[in-house]
Amino acid sequence: MAGFNKIVTRYEDALAGLTDNMTVMAGGFGLCGIPEGLIDQLVKMGAKGLTCISNNAGVDHFGLGKLLDTRQIKTMIASYVGENETFEQQFLSGELEVILTPQGTLAEKIRAGGAGIPAFFTPTGYGTMVAEGKETRKYNGKMYVLEESLTADFSLIKAYKADTMGNLIYRKTTRNFNPMMAQAGRITVAEVEEIVEPGELDPDFIHTPGIYVDRVIQGTFEKRIEQMTLKQPAHA
Amino acid sequence: MAGFNKIVTRYEDALAGLTDNMTVMAGGFGLCGIPEGLIDQLVKMGAKGLTCISNNAGVDHFGLGKLLDTRQIKTMIASYVGENETFEQQFLSGELEVILTPQGTLAEKIRAGGAGIPAFFTPTGYGTMVAEGKETRKYNGKMYVLEESLTADFSLIKAYKADTMGNLIYRKTTRNFNPMMAQAGRITVAEVEEIVEPGELDPDFIHTPGIYVDRVIQGTFEKRIEQMTLKQPAHA
Amino acid sequence: MALTKDQIAQRLSQELKDGYYVNLGIGIPTLVANYIPEGIQVMFQSENGLLGMGEFPAAETVDPDLINAGKQTVTAATGAAYFSSSESFEMIRGGHVDLTILGAFEVDQKGNLASWMIPGKLVKGMGGAMDLVASAQNIIVAMMHANKKGDSKILKECTLPLTGVQCVSKVITDLATLELRDGAFHLLERAPGVSVEEIQEKTEANLVINGEVPEMRLSAPVPA
Amino acid sequence: MALTKDQIAQRLSQELKDGYYVNLGIGIPTLVANYIPEGIQVMFQSENGLLGMGEFPAAETVDPDLINAGKQTVTAATGAAYFSSSESFEMIRGGHVDLTILGAFEVDQKGNLASWMIPGKLVKGMGGAMDLVASAQNIIVAMMHANKKGDSKILKECTLPLTGVQCVSKVITDLATLELRDGAFHLLERAPGVSVEEIQEKTEANLVINGEVPEMRLSAPVPA
Fold it and tell me: What does DSSP say about strands C76-82 and C99-103: parallel, antiparallel, or unpaired?
């Protein structure tokens, strides 16, 4: 890997150095825009005691749900974790610690982590359970809660295209948490649908500049749909 | 102006409602990416006592320098104000109040203003004049300064293309402060080089979604260069 | 007669104004998109990163890369834009969305709202609801006036964990349109055929009734 | 002999490593781009919103929409990306830039640096310098060892208003390479032909000299 060539061809190399008890961010909203192959590799490696930061926890046996099956996650930081029975069992039995965080606060905490901002005030959650034990302050007559930033040892993200230097673009609503997580990872690994040469992505329209990306691997994606909703009733 | 059509054709309409003592943000870095025609209109209108937020203060008699000639600016918030004699005179005579703010802090204060974040901690300026009188706090062994956000009554920005719904794209390094200012203005006016129909800009590559933009006007731009530097010595 | 969910959505749609950017919550609010009044244009914001959400796709155009905040497959309207989750909540928290319509388990006369958690049952999480209610200038709550046993959900004080405080101004239920002012709900409209007495009976919160209370007008026909 | 500005830049260039993302300040640091060692690739970040700054343009390709942080017309390298000022400082403040090289009026043995203001003269502003020094993990200061009168600029304590505190680790001057450790500057290298005595004389700060101090190697030829 000389100069700015970030390409790796084997999943083992993509996640080399990811060990027990690390903090791992995983991009995606529901099952949309998740790094499917990197999650599979994480299952294969078997790293345990992970703190996992992701908006959702996948569904039963897919997405991050796979890491619940193998009991690799110790703590889950997410905004919404419905529709997952394995999750429910491990949460109720106390096996899994869950830190529920409002979606916008979660996004901003991750963005702040990558941006060198250790803490910020937000109106979200004031007066609710989320603000318990946190500092609050009034600005212009409105109350705000002080929230601290999040970073990760590894960020596992999914992009549409990458060039070999790690510049990334995303497609439609797969973007979601991926760009901020790319910035907040000490090591950021991007799994992409297509790899192109430097210069093929228009510099005016790069979503994640390569400076944030350490490794790029080409994947294949199942892209499972959670809620198939059609204009006309489907007769499946 | 029905629905989402944000186009105005006269500069008077573009800045209608901008009155004395308002806070006005103006995009641009040096003379690159500045809303030239909107600044001219502001001179023509003659609104006085303005608080002006911009990374720089233009040069003598061009860009925001024009508003210094007419003594319309009372307070200037900027990161760098060199190369401007009019500025120097008004500053030394006490006619002009100047709040120098580190460039990254300025960018983040504006971004926070548009994002509903009233204050944040940053490492920038700790231990310097910039931090005097401000709260400081230690996170992970490093010291940070609490900075408050900025918003404006009007944001005057420059974009490359707009669609009629106010979706914007910028070109090269003209982007600079324009996107954050678009978000932080109570009324945001974009002066652009070209207006296209909705759907002509790729939804994956819009820099500023139309929700932030209230008015769009097509301008013509001189695009004066501050420091012409060439690969080979120019024989002008 | 109490309104159906579609009729509540129909009444809610009268709150839309031309040029509004609107965030619709999951459930009844989602149905509002089916009743946009003629002659006005609105853009729907979906907090997972889409401004300009369109209708559901035809089977042949389904795209797994394009979903809404309810994880449903959708389309993008002309003039749409995609962005990251942090940018999406800049929009929301920064007060750029003109109207937010969302559901609730309970509201109270302090303007508080509970919508995300029922202790003892599994907690699924608040998603973006806390950000929406803490940020919007203009929130309308769409909900059932009472539960199946007839117990009021319009309370003096919420009993469930809160989603946000002092954020509710207008509530539209299957029975009535209520506006919160000075610590009491003012009864603005009745559902067609519903008596003031029934509304009063099913409202635990302080209810202010001024003179004759008009019936809602549900002009648009309910689509099949 | 004291180094010329180009020679300082040449010595600075030896600090570049393959794959580094680098921010170069105005003045001597800018010249470093002319001396990238053979066989290595670096990308230059310009804080006005460009990663992958290229060389100056030919006259016929000058683009007023493309400048660097010094407001000079530049080009973009292959694989470059443009972004906003807030994104640019996310990069900088978040510690993603591998190396920052910048000038200074004074440094001191506490690691403080003064570079933006000389009281009594007009203050032009700090631009992005305060963000850069507060954020970078790896800062090298490029400066003259002493002023024209021979007064040291490597001090026990800065006299000018500070740009940042406890941020300096390495200083390369026209006379020497210094590394700050445990409250003292360690003399690592001498400029060719400059004596340890001269450096000592022109260094007000505590200076640690361990054994024989080697001369800098300036291998690359100075271009015309």
Answer: unpaired
